[in-house]
């Protein structure tokens, strides 16, 4: 009997439940992982292809020269890259699901952010006209084209992007928006990552 009781006391019991189970959703750093980088590269190729198709569909008499088109689109691309990587960075700072935070950021940028950018461009354009800074007029690069005009306009555009992103961050401080980030209808981390970094942005490109 003594031996039997001793054996029972050495028998391991059931493992205690994990006090902090991993919540569904993509984890910190997932967006800059190999799959995330692949999705971002694929999105960049798709975005460039759509821009090319839009240019080819424009009436020939309305098309900008290739050099002007490239300067305009590259300026906008730099601004969008700034916003994108700001969103990637911010998504890992909250402690919530990064994909959900990125998606909220992206949707705010695509709605309220576009309005703020429009206002910013209008305000900057008025200041440029008032000060007669000809090289800083958006879309005008001189004849012949001057690289410094493009650089100056890029700098102004990034300042506008910084203003827009700061305003969006302030909006994100609204408590109820953080609750939205806790809603995770997609349980598969890779599918969630593909949805927020490829599918949703692609749908909003049109």
Describe the model.
This protein has seven helices and no strands. The protein is mostly helical. The chain has one domain. About 7% of the residues have low confidence.
Outline type: globular
**Overall structural domain count:** 1
Query: Can you count the helices?
Result: 7
Tell how many strands the DSSP assignment holds. 0
Q: Can you give the helix content as a percent range?
A: 55-70%
Structural class: mainly alpha
> What is the H-and-E element order?
HHHHHHH
How many strands, what sense, and barrel or not for the largest sheet? none
The mean pLDDT is 83
Radius of gyration: 25 Å
Region (Disordered): 1-25
GO molecular function: calcium channel regulator activity
Protein name: LOC495070 protein
Biased composition (Polar residues): 1-10
Pick out its properties.
206 residues
In short:
This protein has 206 residues and is mainly α. Helices cover 69% and strands 0% of the residues. The chain has helices at residues 2-10, 34-57, 66-91, 98-131, 147-172, 175-180, 189-205.
Provide the fold topology.
Elements (H helix, E strand, L loop, with lengths): L1 H9 L23 H24 L8 H26 L6 H34 L15 H26 L2 H6 L8 H17 L1
Helix pairs in contact: 2-7, 3-4, 3-5, 4-5, 4-7
Protein name: LOC495070 protein
Keywords: Membrane, Transmembrane, Transmembrane helix
Organism: Xenopus laevis (African clawed frog)
């Amino acid at each position: 009997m003594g031996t039997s009781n001793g054996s029972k006391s050495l028998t391991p019991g059931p493992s205690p439940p994990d006090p902090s189970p991993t919540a569904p959703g993509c984890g910190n750093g997932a967006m800059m992982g190999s799959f995330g980088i692949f999705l971002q590269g694929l999105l960049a190729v798709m975005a460039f292809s759509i821009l090319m198709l839009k240019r080819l569909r424009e009436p020939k008499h309305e098309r900008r020269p290739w050099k002007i088109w490239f300067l305009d689109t590259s300026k906008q691309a730099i601004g969008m890259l700034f916003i994108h990587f700001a969103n990637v960075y911010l998504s890992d700072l909250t402690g919530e699901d990064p994909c959900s935070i990125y998606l909220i950021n992206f949707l705010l940028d695509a709605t309220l952010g576009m309005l703020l950018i429009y206002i910013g461009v209008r305000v900057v354009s008025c200041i440029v006209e008032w000060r007669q800074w000809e090289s800083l007029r958006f879309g005008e690069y001189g004849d012949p084209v001057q690289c410094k005009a493009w650089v100056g306009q890029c700098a102004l555009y990034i300042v506008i992007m910084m203003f827009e992103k700061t305003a969006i961050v302030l909006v994100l401080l609204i408590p109820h928006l953080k609750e939205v980030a806790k809603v995770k209808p997609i349980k598969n981390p890779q599918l969630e990552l593909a949805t927020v970094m490829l599918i949703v942005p692609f749908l909003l490109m049109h």
